[in-house]
Amino acid sequence: MSEQASRTYPQPENPRSLRSVEAAAKGCRACELWRLGTQTVFGSGPRDADVVFVGEQPGDVEDREGEPFVGPAGRILDEALSSAGIDRSRVYVTNAVKHFKWKPKGKRRIHDKPNTAQVAACQHWLELELRLVKPSLVVALGATAAQALLGPKFRVTVDRGKVRSAALAPRVVATVHPSSILRAQDDESRHQEMAAFIRDLRVVKTLLSET
Q1: 11-21 as b/e, with b when 16 or more CB fall inside 10 Å?
Q2: Which among 40, 60, 86, 198 is placed 20 to 30 Å from 107, CA to CA?
Q3: In the prediction, which pLDDT does 2 show?
Q4: How far apart are the first and last CA of the chain?
Q5: pLDDT more than 90, % of the chain
Q6: Does the domain formed by 18-210 have CATH 3.40.470.10?
Q7: Helix, strand or coil for residue 102?
Q8: Residue 1: what pLDDT?
Q9: Claim: this prediction has a pTM higher than 0.90
């Protein structure tokens, strides 16, 4: 029996309802991150979205507001989607991990990368989301999301912008997480990384247009 299969997860009242699955996820105790996060941050967007964007985990703002990609990284994503010609209202966004993992730095809560076991514990909820939304394409934002979908050996730096297939989705395109653009050392680097991010999203736009 796999590690994930051995865990006990809250059962949704209606497993065919995305909102029912979200309600069940709020009671998940499959890993210890529920003790750190303010709340479970489930995915958001239309049930019939053609594309699902998967990030790593909610950040500080998302943890407080209970919505994915509403903080600084979310604003970068929104800007890039607009530049690539992708309708944000038709996009479903979620994360590989549904709780905010952080460590204190003074009065601030600083992002702390989730480990393999924590990502595996949350795979159950990501699988249910993808099964219900049934997107034609999944976009993995950053290494954690990409490896959750495509395996631990996948490297975004090598294969970003390329179409791959995965057990959870027939077509996956990996790119950087928008938070990496925020961490660029200077304005020139930030501009270059944003341009590369938009190029990846234009690949996504083309793939969606061909569907």
Answers
A1: ebeeeeebeeb
A2: 40
A3: 47
A4: 37
A5: 93
A6: yes
A7: strand
A8: 36
A9: yes
**CB half-sphere exposure, 106, CA atoms < 13 A:** 1
Range with lowest mean pLDDT among 5-9, 138-142, 179-183: 5-9
- Taking CA atoms, 20 is separated from 14, 23, 26, 92, 124, in Å, by 6, 5, 10, 17, 14
Task: Report the alpha-carbon distance of residue 85 to residue 130 in Å, rounded.
Answer: 23
Looking at residue 33, the DSSP 8-state letter turns out to be G
Q: Do 173 and 140 form a contact (C-beta atoms < 8 A)?
A: yes
Whole-Å CA distances, 8 to 15, 42, 83, 94: 15, 18, 42, 22
Q: By percentage, how much of the chain surpasses pLDDT 70?
A: 97
Q: Which strand (E) or helix (H) includes residue 174?
A: strand 172-175
Q: Tell me what the pLDDT averaged over the chain comes to.
A: 95
Under 8 Å CB-to-CB from 157, ≥6 apart: which residues? none
Identify the residue whose tokens are 């997860």: 9
Instruction: Give residue-wise pLDDT tens across range 5-53.
Output: 558 899 999 999 999 999 999 999 999 999 999 999 999 999 999 999 9
Please name the amino acid found at residue 10. Answer: P
Residue whose structure tokens are 């038709």: 90
- Amino acid present at 34: W
Can you read off the two tokens belonging to residue 52? 């699902």
> Tokens representing 18?
């995305």
